Amino acid sequence: MGHRKTHAPKHGSLAYLPRKRAKRPVARIRYWPKTKESTPRLLGFLGYKAGMTYVFTIEDRKRSPNFGKEVMRAATVIETPPILVCGIRAYTRTPYGLQQLTEAWMKDPVPELKRALVLPENFNTEEMLQKMSQTLEQATNIRAIIATQPKLSNLSKKKPEITEIEIGGGTIAQQFEYAKSLLGKTVTPEEVFKTGQYVDVAAVTTGKGWQGPVKRWGVTILQAKGRKTKRGIATLGPWNPHHLMYSIPRAGQMGYHQRIEFNKRILKMGKDGKEVTVKGGFIRYGILRGPYILMEGSIAGTEKRTITLRYPARPPKEVSEAPPQITHLSLDSPQGK
Q1: pTM as predicted
Q2: Are the C-beta atoms of residues 43 and 311 closer than 8 Å to each other?
Q3: Does some domain include residue 103?
Q4: Burial 95-119 (b: 16+ CB within 10 A, else e)
């Protein structure tokens, strides 16, 4: 019986080209959804990926064939120490995108901020806020400048991540007043999300370094009697067009790309991380001591990676109002001890 040729085109979407390393390990949110809520609120939160476990829940999606039955689901634990609102920034929309109008910073910045920024002796907060209120008519977006507090997590680092989180809901004036009330204070995940809610999860994937076309694009390994290489590609393209096309699978960087996953459900939120810490602690992370979020399914990135959670950009139409009913949460050691 002769060798049967297999049709095996290159795998992997060309929509994600170029597959190069992300600029920074914290995911950048390019779009903040509009909320219909009348009261302002932060539209995102940051945490650190600790590890995975599994839970048994009662299926509450009415269209599911398992509706009302107990099902097992993979779950990811994210440690979410309170974030510090250290500044407010107002933007105006121009034909060239958003342009910064004004900003205000908290009066006495915490010492850890010096690890990430060069700070002045003291911020004149009152003057900054007054200037912001005068230009509020031109503002179209209000964002909070937030800093994470890794010193409150199980991570060994002290340098905070600094990013912007948009404030949604209500009018611009209401958003500004809400931002002023948060300035210099900490925010917990319960103030932003609620259990059972769907959120979008953005993160930088696990880096795999430089990889060949077989691992990177899933091309077929050439036959044993092939000349020169076996884990390469047979041809770099046709004579015409007379150049190397971008769609040809080549070796290069694999992993450490920013990815965002839509509509992942929050299964549980809590203040004591020991409730969800597996026996012996999470591998390469340890024991959770502070607040946490238990997410359904897997999340991009390695342990300790900063995870960005955002209000859903395209939420599912049918969402159960009640939080998910967890019947069992596994705390077994992932090493089987």
Answers
A1: 0.93
A2: yes
A3: yes
A4: eeeeeebbebbbeebeebbeeeeee
DSSP letter assigned to residue 111: G
- 163, 172, 219: which is closest to 40 by C-alpha? 172
pLDDT mean for each 10 residues of the chain (337 residues):
66 91 96 92 97 96 94 98 97 96 92 91 90 94 97 94 96 96 96 96 98 93 89 91 93 97 97 95 94 97 98 91 94 84
Q: For the chain, what's the residue count? A: 337
Residue 150 lies in a domain: yes
Residues 156 and 256 in one domain: no
What values do phi and psi take at 101, rounded to 5?
A: -95, -65
Angstrom distance (rounded) from CA 245 to CA 236: 8
- Three-state DSSP at 264 gives strand
Cβ atoms within 10 Å of 60's Cβ, excluding its own: 16
Bridge partner residues of 126 (DSSP)? none
Q: What are phi and psi of 115, to 5 degrees?
A: -70, -25
Structural domain total, the chain: 2
